[in-house]
Queue: 3 jobs
Job 1
Amino acid sequence: GGADVSAEGWNRQIDAFDVPGLAAQVASTGCGYFFLTLGQNSGHFLAPNATYERLAGVTPGMCSRRDIVAELADALAPHGVRMMVYLPSGAPAADPVAMKNLGWEWGFEGGWPQAWGTRRTGRRLAEFQVKWEAVIREWSTRWGPKVHGWWIDGCYFADEMYRHADAPNFKSFAGAMRAGNPGSIVAFNPGVLTPIVCHSEEEDYTAGEIDRLFPAKIGPWVERNGHKAQCHILSYLGSSWCAGERPAFSDEFAIAYTRHVADHQGVITWDVPIQKSGLVPQPFVDQLRAIGGAMGRAPNGAMGKSGSPR
C-alpha cells in the first residue's frame, strides 16, 4: 500500500493477505529463514503498534489491526523456517506528520531520495532515536521468540546518530530489537557497499546489500575492531528490489552464486516481489525451489538453508 491508501483501505488489504499460501510457498523452497518488511516509507505497517501510533500522532492509525508477522511466524514454524523482519532506521518519508512528531530528519542536503551524493547534514537526533527504539521494543516484546532477527535499513548516518558511548547508540538500538528475544540477530545497513563490511560491533551478521556487483571474495566472518559478524549478502532476483514479473537471472547463475557463497561459509538472501495477495509470483517461487533443490534442501525447511545467520 502507498501513502495515499487510507487506514481502512490498508486494513482491507491486510485482511486479504494469504498467510497460509505464502507459508506454503516459502516452505516449498527449502529455505531456513524468511524476511518480511514491516513497513517502509508509506507510513503503513503490517502489525499493530500502539507506541508508534501514539508517538507519530497519525489519526486514524496506519498500523494494521491484524498481526501478519505473528501469524506468518506461527505458520512457518512447523516447517523449520525462522521469521526475520525488515525495518527502516528512520520515520516514513511519505508521512510528514509522523516525521515531524517523531523528530526525524533526512541527513543529506536536499531531502530524500534526491540527495544521494550531496552534502551530509545529519545530526544525532537523540529524541527521535529514543522514540524509534520504543516503537521497536513494543514489536519485539509482542513477538518474543517468534522473531529471530532484524535487518535495519538506512543506517547511513552512523557517526552522527549511533557511534556514541552513551545511549541512544548502536547498543541501545540493538537492545530494543532484542527486548522480546535476547537471541535475536541484528544487522545495520550502511548502504550498497562492495566488499561487504561490518557496520557495528553490535551486529551479528552483515546487512550485505549489493546491487549487481556480486563479490567473489566471501568469508565466514567480516571483522570490525576485532568483532566478528557472519558474512551475509542481500540481493534481488527480479529487475530491482521487490520488482519484476520473472527472475532476471537464469537458474544456473542463481544456483551457482548461492553455492559459491555457501561454499565459503557465507549466507545469501534473495529478494523477490510479493503481490497484494501476500503471494510471491510463481516464476520466482520456481527459481527459489531450483536453488533449494540444487543446494540439497528438502521442501518444508526440513534441513534449513545452508549457512543461515547465526
Job 2
Amino acid sequence: MTRVAYLDPIGGMAGDMLLAALLDAGAPLDALDETIGALGLAARIDVRRVERSGVVATHVDVVTSKRTHERPARELRELVGSASLAEPIRLQALEALERLIAAEASIHGVEPGDVILHELGGDDTLVDLCGVFALLHALGVQRVASAPLPMGGGLVTTDHGPLPMPAPATLVLLQGVAVIGVATPGELVTPTGAAIVATVATSFGPMPSMTPSATGYGAGTRTHPDRPNLVRVVLGDVAEDGARRGEVVVLQANVDDMIPELVPDALDACLAAGALDAWTEPIAMKKGRPGLLVSVLARPHDERRLAETLLQHSTSLGVRVQSHARYELDRAIREVQVEGRTVRVKIGLLDGRVVNVAPEHDDCAQVAAASGRPVKQIWAEALAAATTTLHMTEDADDPAG
C-alpha cells in the first residue's frame, strides 16, 4: 500500500496552515519540536483549537525569540544543509528553499547567490519548510496530490512597497502548478506555501482514488468573505508498492521542412515552457522524404501550453497527444562544493532509499570552464562528494551504526 496525502486548499495555502492540518490529521507534535531542535532555532510551536465556518480546526503559531526576517540565501542554505535532519526531509527542504531563492532572484533581477530573503528569511520560514516535510515523513506519506491552488487578487503592503496579488514570487514558484482564479481579495497562497506544494505535489486535480484513513484541518488567521480560511489534508492508502505511478503526456509532431539550425531552439522553448524532456528522432516520411519526429514529455496540466509552444516554434501544422502512466522515483536536489563552486546533484529515492545520484551536467560544465579542468573530473568529484555525504547521513540515522 502507498500512503497518499491529498491537499485541499479551501481558503488558500500557507506553510503554517499546512503544518496545522498535518498535526490535525495525526502527525506527532514531537516531530515538529525535533525539527526545530535539529535546525538549532530558538522557536516554539503554540497549537490551539479554533473554529472556521462551524468546522473545528487546528491553528499553529510559530513563536520565535529572534525577530529575524531577513537573511542571505547562503545562510539559509547552510542552516538547512547542516541540520541533523533525516535525509529525505533535508533534501526536500533544500529543494523548496532553492525554489524560493530562484523565484526571488528572478523577480529582483539578481543572481541566486546574491539574494537576500527579506520577509521570507525568518526562523518561521525555516520551521514551515522543514516542519511540513518532517510531518509528512512522520506520517509515512509516500505521495502528495493537490487540488488547484486558489489565486486571490488586490494589493498587499510589503517591505518592497505595495505588490499585486498573487505576489510576483508566488507566481514564479507556481509555474507548472495548477491554479484557479477566485474573487477572494488578498494573499491566499504565500510564497512558502507555493514552494512547499511545488516541491512535494506530483499531481493536481480531483482527489485520487484511495481509501481515506484520516482528515486534518489547518486554520489561518484572516477571515475571508466568501470561503473558510482552511487547508484540508486527507490521508489515505492506495494499493501500490515500489516506485510512484504518475501520469504523463507525450506530444509529437512530424516535420520535414524545418531548418536544422532551428530544431534545438524548438526543443529549448519546450523545456523552458515546462516540458519534462524533449527530443528528436530521424524518420522517413511520405515520398521518401527524410524528416524528424519531435517528441515532448510533459505533465497533463501542461499539455495545452506545450502544444502551443511546439506549434509556435516548429513548422508543424498539428501536434498529436498520447497519455501514458509511468513509474517514477521520488526526486530531490542536493548541493555540493567543487572548486569552491556549487554543483547541484539530483537524488533518486525509492521508498526513502537513495538509489540514484547524478550531478547536474550544466553546473559541472560551468565549474570546468571556470577552473580549466575537464568536465568529467568535476562530474566525478561532485558525485563522490554527494555520495560521501549521503553515506554519512545514513550512518548517522542508523541506530546500529
Job 3
Amino acid sequence: MQVKTLGVPSPPLVDWEIFEGDVRAAEVVSESDASELRIYDVTFAPGARTVWHSHTTDQVLVITAGYGTVATESEERPVRVGDLVVVPADERHWHGARADAGMTHLAVMTAGEDDF
C-alpha cells in the first residue's frame, strides 16, 4: 500500500504536446504504482487547456479547484470544483480553464493510448 499527498509540492510546469498555455501536471499514479491505473493532477492557468484529443480508454475528470470547460465535438459544458466528468473511450474532447479563472482536476484512466 502507498499513501500520497496531492498538491504538495505543487505539480511542475510541463511542456507536453497535449497542453496549450501554462499547465502544471504530475503523474500521481504511474505504471510503477499500478499496472493498469493512471491518475494525473493537472492545474491549468487561466485560459490554458488541452488540444483536441481522445483516449483509447474511458477518462474521468474530477474538478478539485476553480472553473473550466469540457467540450466534445457536439457540446461544451462549464465545470467547477466538485464536478465529475466521464469521457467515454474514443470521444474527441478538450478540457481546460476559463479565460478568467484557473482550474485543477484529477484525470483518472486505465492504461491506454492518446490520439491528438
